[in-house]
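Predict structure. Chain length: 319.
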Amino acid sequence: MRKLLLLALVGLGAQLVDGSLGMAYGVTSTTLLLAIGASAASASATVHLAEIGTTLASGVAHWRFGNVDWSVVLKVGVPGAIGAFAGATFLSSLSTETAVPIMSCILFTLGIYLLVRFTVVGFPTGRTGPPLRKRFLGPLGLVAGFVDASGGGGWGPVGTPAILASGRMEPRRVIGSIATSEFLVALAASVGFLVGLGSENVNFAWVGALLLGGTVAAPIAAWLVRKIPPRMLGSAVGGIIILTNSRTLLRSEWIDAPAGVRYAAYATILAVWAGAVAWSLRQHLAEQALTASAAGAAPEPGDAGRSKSERPELADELG
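Prediction complete.
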């Protein structure tokens, strides 16, 4: 019962992160399942089955808040479903000894990506432009879907930044569209795992716990996407994923590092992580101050037609 309660809380927290950043539900949940001893394929299957419900709830919530572009959902989601089915089939064919380190490598890499992107670059403000084309969204969905199923997560970390970087959609609509299209990815991956593993290898109690927590969090996350500082959240989540998967990798048969090396690595990661979160907080506060300063410097409506000499406060400021 304690484990199921923990999984429900993880599902809630992971969905809050995913709904706010447009990424990291699968990465966060799969990382925890690997840490408590689940096999790689079973962990990914559990998460994707739970995501059928959480992504449906998240998609409905984002749709109600006006965060969804349905043309993007279809153009990226259908290829994503094909890639996810292929990734699930691939992972199901690997032995546990081989699959767990491979999945941890993927998750570790995604964790580094999250930490670096949100600490150094922040969260792009985005802008609108011509509609995104199928020749861009199709391959993107195919790759993101395969990584998502074979790595236990990755749809958001691969898809969201790529679309944001195109500069053709508002961030909230990018997040909403990626979150909604993930329903197709989760459904296809789940079918692939059930075909490859069989239902007896999936713990449906774990699925239910993750689903319950994620469903409760979905509407909250759709609202928080407009309120929460994504820069800090991305840095914090990236550090958690790096730390947890480094433990799996260092203890795996591939590396089997001695205790002293492991603890030194953990200490280094913790130090870098703390510094990254502190830097993100500092940058967030600086951005807030800059925004407030710009808003304060904007001319009053009645000043629009006044000259510099008629506005002494601006004359002093501008020299």
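Summary: The chain is about 80% helix and 0% strand.
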